[in-house]
Amino acid sequence: MHLLRGHRSFPKLKQFTARQSSQVAFNQDEYTEMPEYPPIVDMSLKARKLREQQAIHEKIRKLNTVEEKQIGLNMPRYYGFRSVIFKDDKVPYNAMPLVQGYTRTHFKLINKLPDPYLETAAAADLTVKDVKSFVEDAIVIEYEKIDRNFSPSLDKTEEEQKENAIAKCIVKQINRIITNNLADKVAHILSAQVDYDPRHEAFWFVGGTDVPARVIKWRKQYKWLREPERLHEPVDRPVQYLGTPFIAIRSHQPLKPLIPYSEAENPEFKVPKFTYVPESVGYFTEHRHGTNIPGFWPGDYDEFGLLSIHGRGHLLVRKESYGENDQLEALHCQAMKNSFGWLLAQASYQGFTTFNDLTYPLVTQTVITNGQLWSFYAYQLNTVTMHNEQIDENPKHNICFGSTPMKLYDTIEDGKVKGLNEDVLKMLVQFYLNSPEEREHEMKPYLGKEEKVIADIDDDKKRCWLEDRYKHLVSNRPKHFLLPETYLWEKIYKIEHNTRFFERKVRPFELGVNPYKRKLNEHLPPYIPKVLRPYPRSKKKFETTYYPDV
User: Fold this and answer.
1) CA gap 3, 1 in Å, rounded
2) Residue 270: what are its φ and ψ, rounded to 5°?
3) Rounded to whole angstroms, how far apart are CA atoms 347 and 342?
4) What is the pLDDT of residue 27?
5) In whole angstroms, how far apart are CA 109 and each of 260, 282, 328, 332, 378?
6) What is the rounded average pLDDT of the residues 437-461?
């Protein structure tokens, strides 16, 4: 024993015996009446990739604050995603199937507002009588008493600018008249906030789409991806909505659901599945960071949408050969994009993302007008998860009730409005009278208990860093260096035909590097000069970063 105690290997032997004895003691308590087997895990490549994606989705769900979740969504791409751009003033020909498929929306054409609006019909009749004359005066002033000069721009014609400008002024005047009349009668109108030309943006992924040709060409390089099932396996398409309504009205509480949440899985709701590349319809892609902005910053008191009103000047530049039916579908597409985009951005401020679905419905009201023609839409958002894992598994659908365009008035003659349609004005007033109400369930189940936005973080450095990083991310400013590009001569002489093999290989495609897969945190942090480092000595050369662990 004395020799063993003094031997140089004794410490290791001591550790081994202690570990072995503890293992024996642990094993004695492992016996159970019924045998328990470990789960059988699928170790195929597809299953492993699926588990990796689910782990990332779970990490995003567990992040405490709204801003950290948005940064986490953008972590895979330093230069941003190659997103399909949904603009509210651009609707190509025959876009209805794509818009319905990308927003998972069942559209229902109606002649009158849904049943929940019957409660406000009597109050709306009284309000219309009070505001009718003021609305007529406002329309006459905006059309005949004000001179406007417009010049054609690169993106909008003079006719389109004129129609949108007049419509915007009429909308502002009618909003002022109705809200002034209802402010002392309806509590939610008095406390509501009105945004003029707000910034509405939303980002999500759509799965089940056809594989682009460039992806198929990339997959053919690898043996395990050449199988027919893997070669043409559907991909996720990033989609970015960009919109700017004339006005948007917000309240502290959400609107009441149009239909029960359980009806979201109704099999009668039909949504076409659009699998073709979006370029085949007329939508194009752009590299940018994914942003979810409902017109205000996280932490605002009034964070639920009540009503948004949009223009329809873009219809003037669409070809007449498209026909009246496609013009009507273009309005419906615009309403579905506007409604889905605004509600998804609001849902992101409640802690939900395109990977973590809603636990309750959200509702908004959308109006599209040129001052004379008015279209009314009521939209209920039931789900936002449409990526590859959920595109076929998710049974829920969103629903949109929409009307055809209706004339508010017939003509303006001798400084007076002729044929004012009180039914149209009544429908608009009913949208204002639709009162929000408090929900009886948890509104922010995926946000932290004490830290819901980064303003709640006590650590000054972390709070300031996240605030600065988030604001810079959603600004979508260009990077310091240009996006990596493969020039045409390189594609011809170096990629398609290897004729310059004698040159030194320095370009990313020559080194087997895909620069677009660079992660958001793959960069040098700001350098700390020696004079600013902690006293007396510190070898820390770079500032601390607080990127979420995604």
Assistant:
1) 5
2) -110, 125
3) 9
4) 54
5) 19, 25, 11, 9, 11
6) 93
